[in-house]
């Protein structure tokens, strides 16, 4: 048998496979979500997100020291407030925990990329992402509160704000407010194609943000829709988004690919809590190799077109990549 083409030649050894690898994942591609709470010396594991914790600010700073050494691309902060109300007014309180965290992190680690999640669900007593009137989340009233929240984060030192609420026009409202107040250099990473997904369950425990009544399907996207995602991304880019995001990641690799092909703009994907938790659970049962499965999952997200991956595996995968290199 005379075979001219033998693709297996380039798979024969680990060094050859590495040489011709098309998709290369690095620690700098990864953003690590962190949950910060009030108090001192608090480190409580989130039961549905094993290996992730509610951290008080003192221990958060210790965690960040490790992340900096690993070369992780940055962090995204979620705050757990002490008090909630109907409007979620704690979200823009300059003395709330996210704002405190931003100030201290930037003081100790000025070069670390700090992204803040901009939403109201953690801060509202009803758990929805905006103001409620007659049982319905009000879009335009909510925009002002989101803009105030983003501004408070920028004032505290956040490099980038990430609105995750899915209200119409929120990127424009935030961009205009930031620019008016002199924060033209604060970037916006918009959760542009955020689906009403069943994969968010563990996060809602972590952020204490589950809706008290109903669900979020009136403002988050229908999982059946694809073209709608492109319309949402286009609107956010037109309104001033610097980076757009698809969330979740693994069930929506087709959306990531379509978004990259159509817009060729900086693109993030959120490897969400449910994606993390189901692999963790399978690994605990001995059904999957956690490290290999996690690495394969994140590589597939990058291969689909996302340059930036928000993932609860950021720290573990960064350690593996450092060891392999």
Automatic annotation (TrEMBL):
Pfam families: ALAD (PF00490). 5-aminolevulinate 1 binds at residues 204, 216. InterPro entries: ALAD (IPR001731), ALAD_AS (IPR030656), Aldolase_TIM (IPR013785). Transmembrane segments: none annotated. Keywords: Heme biosynthesis, Lyase, Magnesium, Metal-binding, Porphyrin biosynthesis, Zinc. Signal peptide: none annotated. GO terms for biological process: protoporphyrinogen IX biosynthetic process. Zn(2+) binds at residues 119, 121, 129. SUPFAM superfamilies: Aldolase. GO terms for cellular component: cytosol. It is an enzyme of class 4 (lyase). Belongs to the ALAD family. Catalyzes an early step in the biosynthesis of tetrapyrroles. Binds two molecules of 5-aminolevulinate per subunit, each at a distinct site, and catalyzes their condensation to form porphobilinogen. This is Delta-aminolevulinic acid dehydratase. It comes from Halobacteroides halobius (strain ATCC 35273 / DSM 5150 / MD-1).
């Amino acid at each position: 048998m005379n075979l001219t083409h033998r693709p297996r030649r380039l798979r024969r050894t680990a060094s050859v496979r590495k040489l011709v690898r098309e998709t290369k994942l690095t620690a700098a591609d990864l953003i690590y979500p962190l949950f910060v709470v009030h108090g001192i010396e608090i480190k409580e594991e989130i039961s549905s997100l094993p290996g992730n914790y509610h951290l008080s600010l003192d221990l958060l700073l210790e965690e960040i020291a490790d992340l900096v050494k690993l070369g992780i691309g940055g962090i995204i902060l979620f705050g757990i407030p002490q008090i909630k109300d109907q409007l979620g007014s704690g979200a823009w309180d300059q003395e709330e925990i996210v704002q405190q965290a931003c100030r201290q992190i930037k003081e100790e680690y000025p070069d670390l990329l700090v992204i803040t999640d901009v939403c109201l669900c953690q801060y509202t007593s009803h758990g929805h992402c905006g103001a409620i009137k007659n049982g319905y989340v009000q879009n335009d009233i909510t925009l002002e509160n989101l803009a105030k929240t983003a501004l408070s984060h920028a004032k505290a030192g956040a490099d980038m704000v990430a609105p995750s609420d899915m209200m119409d026009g929120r990127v424009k409202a935030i961009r205009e407010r930031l620019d008016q107040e002199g924060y033209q250099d604060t970037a916006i990473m918009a959760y542009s194609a955020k689906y009403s997904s069943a994969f968010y369950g563990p996060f809602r425990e972590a952020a204490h943000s589950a809706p008290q009544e109903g669900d979020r399907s009136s403002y988050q996207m229908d999982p059946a829709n694809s073209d709608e995602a492109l319309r949402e991304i286009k609107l956010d880019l037109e309104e001033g988004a610097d980076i757009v995001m698809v969330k979740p990641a693994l069930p929506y690799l087709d959306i990531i690919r379509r978004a990259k092909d159509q817009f060729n703009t900086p693109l993030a994907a959120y490897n969400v809590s449910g994606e993390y938790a189901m692999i963790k659970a399978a690994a605990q049962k001995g059904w999957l190799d956690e490290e290999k499965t996690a690495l394969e999952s994140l590589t597939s997200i990058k291969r689909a077109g996302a340059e930036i991956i928000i993932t609860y595996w950021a720290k573990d995968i960064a350690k593996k990549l450092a060891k392999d290199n």
